[in-house]
Design a protein that fits this description.
Largest sheet: 7 strands, mixed
Pfam family, one: ADH_N
Bound molecules: NADP nicotinamide-adenine-dinucleotide phosphate
InterPro entries: ADH-like_N (IPR013154), Chloroplast_QOR (IPR052733), ER (IPR020843), GroES-like_sf (IPR011032), NAD(P)-bd_dom_sf (IPR036291)
Order of helices and strands: EEEHHEEEEHEHEHEEHEHEHEHE
Organism: Phaeomonas parva
GO molecular function: oxidoreductase activity
Protein name: Enoyl reductase (ER) domain-containing protein
Radius of gyration: 20 Å
Number of domains: 2
Helix content: 25-40%
CATH topology of the largest domain: Quinone Oxidoreductase, Chain A, domain 1
Shape: globular
Number of helices: 9
């Protein structure tokens, strides 16, 4: 879709959030930095909105410790993954994207800026009739949700699916996708304050984890898939409410000290998996433009929608917005208009 509000920046500099190291305080600062240059096959996107992920918080504070090995803040000082905006320039060899196209996508850092360079193949046309904020919200969280649901048992209509952490960024998409793509019977696990939100997204049942552990309530029949976005419930307890041919897909692994975390949890699940008919899946999202197109299509058809909280203040609001993710209390996706 072509934009009518194309505002290319004629200068060579841009504003961006720059990460100086790991930690909560003083590690993010909005600075003036060079605009990214374009390589073959890349496009320059003027960022209109970004969404904030729990992963941004992990990358900022450097927890768990393994994150520090994976995130190179010197090589890639600008954080942020999810963006939506307008293409303002195309590099050599780009054929399928034009200046003026409205796109969204995710990148391996660099989104918390006025401009981001992205491979042509990594950007996806914005769904029609959707705001930049809603498109930015869709990227990592929507993709994680659909991939996690697919990673579990093959679902048939009416199968029981449990989403633990249903009110957060990933959960709010997982509830909708489990209903609309898999026609599942969805139990959402969240606190009572968010029960109305998850019901509005399509949950059939809600378990308030502040009243009872979801594993204290054995469904009939048992769950075919549990997508666990929190990761603090023991695997054995999850297995007790899971069908014999069911799947536990663990997207999060709780929070623990220790150099080996979460590798110890991942290896533990893989080892146990060898001795049971149940599928125990330590899950890691794989960025994929095809999935983004699939999610954009569902959005355009009105089958899913982002549940967003818009944060005012542009790039300057991002340091606090990311710090707030550490508390784990987000409802839906937090988005910032840039
Ligand atoms: N493996 C991967 O590839 C991958 C990809 C994306 C995300 N993740 C991880 O997946 C997790 C979820 O991501 P997200 O973006 O959805 O996080 P989020 O937006 O921060 O999720 C926050 C939500 O979790 C709920 N919650 C907290 N404790 C809960 C509990 N014990 N039971 C049920 N709900 C609880 C909160 O509700 P209340 O405030 O009402 O408690 C809040 O609505 C994060 O740990 C993230 O790092 C992993």
């Amino acid at each position: 879709m072509a934009s009518e509000t194309l505002t290319p920046n004629p200068g060579t500099m841009m504003r961006a959030v720059v990460q100086a190291g790991f930690g909560d305080d003083g590690t993010y600062e909005v600075q003036s930095v060079p605009k990214p240059g374009l390589k073959d096959g890349e496009v320059l996107v003027q960022v209109k909105a970004v969404s904030i992920n729990k992963g941004d918080w992990h990358s900022r504070v450097g927890e768990p410790g393994m994150v520090k090995m994976a995130v190179d803040v010197k090589a890639k000082p600008i954080p942020g993954h999810d963006y939506a905006g307008v293409v303002v320039e195309v590099g050599p060899g780009v054929e399928g994207v034009e200046a003026g196209d409205e796109v969204f996508g995710m990148c391996d850092r660099g989104a918390f800026a006025e401009f981001v360079a992205a491979r042509e193949t990594d950007v996806v046309s914005m769904p029609a009739g959707v705001t930049f904020e809603d498109a930015a919200a869709l990227a990592s969280a929507g993709m994680t949700a659909i991939q996690a649901l697919r990673a579990g048992a093959k679902l048939e209509a009416g199968d029981k699916v449990c989403i633990v952490g249903a009110s957060g960024g990933v959960g709010s998409f997982a509830v909708q996708l489990a209903k609309t793509v898999f026609d599942a019977d969805v139990t959402a696990v969240c606190s009572g304050r968010n029960a109305a939100v998850v019901r509005s997204l399509g949950a059939d049942d809600v378990i308030d984890y502040t009243e009872a552990a979801f594993t204290d309530v054995t469904p009939e029949p048992k769950y075919k898939t549990i997508v666990d976005l929190v990761g603090t419930t023991p695997v054995a307890d999850c297995r007790a409410v899971l069908a014999d041919d069911g799947s536990l897909v663990r997207v999060a692994f709780g929070e623990e000290e220790g150099f080996m975390f979460p590798l110890n949890k991942v290896l533990g699940m893989m080892a146990r998996s060898m001795f049971t008919s149940q599928k125990l899946v330590p899950f890691f999202q794989e960025p994929n433009a095809e999935d983004l197109r699939f999610l954009a299509g569902l959005t355009e058809e009105g089958k899913i929608r982002a549940h967003t909280t818009s944060i005012e203040g542009g790039l300057g609001a991002i340091p606090e917005a990311v710090a707030d993710m550490g508390a784990g209390r987000a409802v839906g996706k937090r988005v910032v208009r840039v």
